Every structure is written in structure tokens, then in C-alpha cells.
Amino acid sequence: MIADPDMVIAVYPEAEMVEVMTYQDCFGFRKVYSDDMSLVSPSTKKELNSFLSQWLTNIKNQGHQIGKNESEN
Q: What's this model's pTM, rounded to 2 decimal places?
């Protein structure tokens, strides 16, 4: 069996933005920022954020949404 990919994202609610921090699958581990938060690879950031954008678009098109629970309104 192959494990599902794992992605760590940062969420910035005020800016209504997310970005990929790390990605891991059966082929390896990739990170966008070094431990001191300086940019490691602009091409990695672009590629992984593009993947995240497509994934979020797909789940939105499937009817999922991000928001408060009904009990929180």
C-alpha cells in the first residue's frame, strides 16, 4: 500500500489566503521555506501552491465549503 500524500499549509484568514509549507508523498519530502523562513525554492512554492489551488477548486466543485459551523452562527 502507498500512503496518501501529506501537505502542511499556512492559513491567513485576514487575507483569505493559504500557502503550502511542506509536501510529502511516496517519492519524498519537499518544503518551501527553510527553518528560518527564508525562501528555499520559488519554483517549488509555485508548483505546490498550484497543486493546492487545483485541489481546493476540486473540493469546492464537489460541494464542500469552508465556513463556520451552523452552531457557531
A: 0.75
